[in-house]
Amino acid sequence: MRQPKPFFRKFTRSWYVTLGGKQLPLGKDKALAWWRYHEIMAGQAASEQIASVAQLCDAYLDWCQRHRKPATFDKQRRYLRSFIATIGTRLPIARLRKKHLTAWVDSLRLSTTTANDALTIVLRVFNWALEEGHIERSPLPKLKKPPRRRREIYYTAEQWREIQSHVPDPQFRDLLDFLWSTGCRPQEARLLEGEHVQLSESICVLPASLAKGGGRDREGRAVAR
Length: 225
Hints:
By secondary structure, the protein is mostly helical. Helices cover about 50% and strands about 10% of the residues.
């Protein structure tokens, strides 16, 4: 297929290029017009390379690996690979429909909260693609997600002693006691260092850069139970 080239129109004294049956103005200056032409063609080539949902997910994961924390990247890669395994690698972006996501989530038999997480990750791919200019509109403009449900589980002292009785490793038992007493997440406990602990106040403060979500500092206080 012959590649279109810029042409000069004397009547308007401007440069143009014809793409998709439309004449795009490139400006009056020849050097600037050719620069804009090459920029347009490069963008068009990039868009043509990302034609399927699988290709779009791969592009998003490449970006995610560079700009997100490893744990976030791993979670999103796991769900997106599962999604692509369900819909196949050749489904064009324009042909993606809500039914594809419904079939995928149903096949996983997830709780409503986890299903919400899974669908959010897929939708994030298309929001990112819109922001980056890979697509002009999302094939999923409206998608109702199942509600998230807050997990409210409390262990009594008696229940906790029962749990401890099944943990033979004393060091692991100490870790579980620490999590139970402070409300600290396992990932946060792994990142804690001496500088985060204030023994005089019986608290530990994890900086926002290390806490889940990275939004604010997380404070845990030991509570006698």
